[in-house]
Structures are given as structure tokens and as C-alpha cells.
Design a protein that fits this description.
Elements lengths: L1 H18 L3 E3 L4 H24 L6 H18 L3 H8 L3 E7 L1 E4 L13 E7 L4 E7 L1 H7 L6 E9 L2 E10 L2 H6 L1
Antiparallel strand pairs: 1-7, 2-6, 3-4, 4-5, 6-7
Helix pairs in contact: 2-3
Length: about 180
């Protein structure tokens, strides 16, 4: 039972981190605001209960430490709430053609590595470029000469978009000439 309780936070964090794949938020600062609000409002009752029930044991310093660690842990676990809102709330499904650019090297994949290639897509709902990690091999198998657009299928709601699929396509002018 103890091992399960120790592993539970790691399992939850793994699930939450998978939620944010292919999700782009309308407001990039939203996760931090939500985490701060959840952390502070969740830590208040915990610190209040500690003060109320263990008054003799808790000094001001211990109470502040309890509040800080509770706020931090709750905030860490609530960072992915906006991504879950994009994924699970009602949404519209959109399909459209848009511009793309390719960059070498691609976006960062952590502290010490980068993607081989970055694929930037102009998102119509967010009105900004979003970037995916890709590779030259993927580009060679999916892109043919003259393809100058990318077709995107995404789910959209007020909090952001979740890109379901994308593939290279010809623009309507080039499609008629083919």
C-alpha cells in the first residue's frame, strides 16, 4: 500500500504530461496563473487545519513551511489543468490548409538536445505559428515537390487547440496544375 502511494504521484504526472501533447493554449501564461491560484487556495485549508488541530506543535515557522510545501505540490499537480480543459471540454473540429516553414535545427527537447528539424505551422485559430518536432526522414517520406501548404485537423475551444493530424498538401492553384 505504501509503495502504491509513493508511485501514485509519478503515475499522475506521467498521465498529465501526456495530456499536453499536441495541445497549444490560447494564453500561454494560463497554466502558471491556474497553478498559483490552485496552490494558494489549496494550501490555505491545509495550513488552517494544521494550525487548528495541532496548535501546540506548530510554531509560526513550521506553519509557514507547511503552507509553502502544500502550495508548491498542489501547484505542480495543477499545471496541466488548462491542457486538460482543451482536451476534454466541448470543442469544434476544424480542417484547413495553411502555410508552413521548416527550420534546422528544430525546437529544444530539454536541456541538452534539439529536434533534427522544426515544422512551423500558421494556426488559424490562435493566429500564431506553432512548432512541431520533426525529422528529415519524415519530411522526405511525406513531402513531394510542389507541395506548398499543410493541411491540419484540430479540435478548437476557447482555451486553445489540439492538433490531431497534419499532412502536406498542394495549394488550390498548384492542385489544378497537377
Amino acid at each position: 500500500m505504501t509503495v502504491a502511494l509513493l508511485l501514485l504521484p509519478f503515475i499522475v504526472m506521467t498521465y498529465w504530461s501526456n495530456l499536453s501533447r499536441q495541445v497549444f493554449l490560447a494564453d500561454p501564461d494560463l497554466p502558471f496563473r491556474v497553478a498559483a491560484i490552485c496552490g494558494l487556495t489549496g494550501a490555505l485549508p491545509i495550513a488552517g487545519a494544521g494550525w487548528l488541530f495541532r496548535r501546540s506543535r506548530f510554531t509560526g515557522r513550521k506553519l509557514l513551511k507547511l503552507f509553502g510545501t502544500s502550495a508548491f505540490m498542489i501547484a505542480i499537480f495543477s499545471l496541466q489543468i488548462p491542457s486538460a480543459l482543451v482536451r476534454y471540454l466541448p470543442h469544434q473540429r476544424l480542417q484547413y490548409r495553411t502555410d508552413f516553414t521548416v527550420s534546422f535545427p528544430g525546437p529544444s527537447r530539454g536541456k541538452s538536445s534539439r529536434c533534427e528539424m522544426g515544422l512551423k505551422i500558421k494556426d488559424q485559430h490562435l493566429q500564431r505559428w506553432i512548432e512541431f518536432c520533426s525529422s528529415k526522414a519524415w519530411m522526405d517520406t511525406h513531402h513531394q515537390r510542389g507541395m506548398d501548404r499543410i493541411e491540419v485537423i484540430e479540435e478548437v475551444n476557447q482555451y486553445g487547440v489540439r492538433v490531431l493530424d497534419y499532412w502536406f498538401s498542394w495549394s488550390p492553384i498548384n492542385e489544378a496544375a497537377r
